[in-house]
Specification:
- The protein has a two-stranded antiparallel ribbon.
- It is low in regular secondary structure and 71 residues long.
- The radius of gyration is 13 Å and the shape is globular.
- The N and C termini lie far apart (35 Å).
- It has strands at 8-10, 15-18.
């Protein structure tokens, strides 16, 4: 169990994706599901997140302005 705020995006509007820095990121355990509720493969970067949504590996993110965080 998590005894701290899991840092959901906006639980008041049922937006339960994890924000950056959430203590639930990379703190889960292996499960039999290989994709999250959005269809994103789990785990990302080799480590499971807690909850229904896996946070994308930041090295795979590409922003609308065309910049990314990858190498």
């Amino acid at each position: 169990n998590l005894d701290v705020d899991p840092a959901f995006v906006n639980p008041a509007t049922s937006e339960f994706h994890l924000r950056a820095g959430s203590p639930a990121v990379d703190s889960g355990t292996a499960v039999t599901l290989d994709h999250d509720q959005d269809g994103l493969a789990r785990p990302q970067a080799g480590v499971y997140d807690r909850g229904a949504y896996e946070r994308p590996d930041s090295s795979d993110l590409i922003f609308a302005d065309g910049f990314d965080l990858g190498p």
